[in-house]
Amino acid sequence: IGEAPAQSAFSSRLPFLAETDQLKSVYRASRLLSDQRFENSAEHSWHIMLFAWVLCEYATPGFSIDRVLKMLLLHDIVEIDAGDHPIHGQVDHAAQEAEEQAAANRLFGMLPTDQRVSFLALWQEFEAADSQDARFAKAIDRIQTPIGNLETGGGSWVDYDVTFAQIEERVGNPIQRGAPDLWAWLRPQLVAYFTAEIRV
Amino acid sequence: IGEAPAQSAFSSRLPFLAETDQLKSVYRASRLLSDQRFENSAEHSWHIMLFAWVLCEYATPGFSIDRVLKMLLLHDIVEIDAGDHPIHGQVDHAAQEAEEQAAANRLFGMLPTDQRVSFLALWQEFEAADSQDARFAKAIDRIQTPIGNLETGGGSWVDYDVTFAQIEERVGNPIQRGAPDLWAWLRPQLVAYFTAEIRV
Ligand SMILES: [Ca+2]
């Protein structure tokens, strides 16, 4: 009986944990390196947390890897309602933002107040990309796909007929803002790939 | 030219990040809540990090959620070489441990020294389960499947013909050690399920 409040607090967290199982069924435009199938947003989230940690010396000094990992753990949960929007697809940005905000309100709203507030705040910080931690998290979120596409001969760039100018704007800018050394390393390789593909 | 050392350090981390993509193709004995397919170990790792964070008030005081998240981020990477061993399957534990240690040496060995040492140490702490953080991480690793099985009418318990005594030993003990309040909440529900199934 003494444990009743803790246990009911536990039960109140379960629906959120069950609902988030659905992120495993949200598929992205990019494929596994083995090329077997499209990647889902849950396994993508796991992988870019590993990218962030392994590459954390390329973050600007004073950042917190622990906050970045938590941001990346949460960052795609809104896709359960709002879907994945490939960065090279045609998108109505205002509509997408409204959809994702509604998704965040519904999904994080399943949690008790204290966690709802802190999860929403961290997701919003990531989306706004105006803190150092959020900018590094965004850079890492953008870098996995180009590295994979370079390793697999084009990947989603071929599917979406992407140009180097589009990459520089939609991928290069966020990486440059959050992890400039990584962009300095990646850019020449992208130039080489797109030059060879005569897409520059 | 001033950036060359940082950039070569970056290149030296890429093979590990590419190799770990394979965790998305290691399938577990448990299924998604939608029952569509088996769960893979990468998306499982993502989900239990979320479980750990959402349920962190059930950890014993003084633990570090940041260390637990990092442990869970790494904990299944060895399965790329050693495979997933369902806890209700027949297993030669000594052989499995040797296989996982060799896998950890090979996979974390792809990283530069500083990260190899710290990742190996954290993985070994998790495996040994003799720190507070590791015990909580182990408890969380064990709790996702029974919660899912309760929600889906048995799941992998049916496939493996599991008894309550087996659950109590292989699932209950680690949850009790790392998060006793969670076991106090879960146990009566398991008793009710297995009583109804006449498997007690
Ligand atoms: Ca496992």
Task: Give a short summary of the structure.
2 copies of one chain form a homodimer. With 200 residues, the first copy, chain A, is mainly α.
Question: How far apart lie the N and C ends of chain A?
Answer: 69 Å
Q: Identify the CATH architecture of chain A.
A: Orthogonal Bundle
SS-based class of chain A: mainly alpha
Gyration radius of chain A, in Å: 18 Å
Task: List key phrases describing it.
homodimer, 200 residues, mainly alpha, Hypothetical protein af1432, 11 helices, 2 strands, 66% helix, binds calcium ion
Tell me about this structure.
Chain A has a single domain, classed as Hypothetical protein af1432 (Orthogonal Bundle). Helices cover 66% and strands 4% of the residues of chain A. By secondary structure, the first copy, chain A, is mainly alpha-helical. Chain A starts with a helix and ends with a helix. In chain A, α3 (41-54) packs antiparallel against α4 (65-74) and α8 packs parallel to α11 (180-196). Chain A has eleven helices and two strands, in the order ααββααααααααα. Chain A has helices at 4-11, 14-19, 41-54, 65-74, 79-82, 93-108, 113-128, 132-151, 156-160, 164-178, 180-196; strands spanning 27-31, 38-40. Chains A and B meet through α1, α2, α3, α4 and α8 of A and α1, α2, α3, α4 and α8 of B. The structure holds calcium ion. Calcium ion (CA) is lined by residues 76, 84 of chain B.
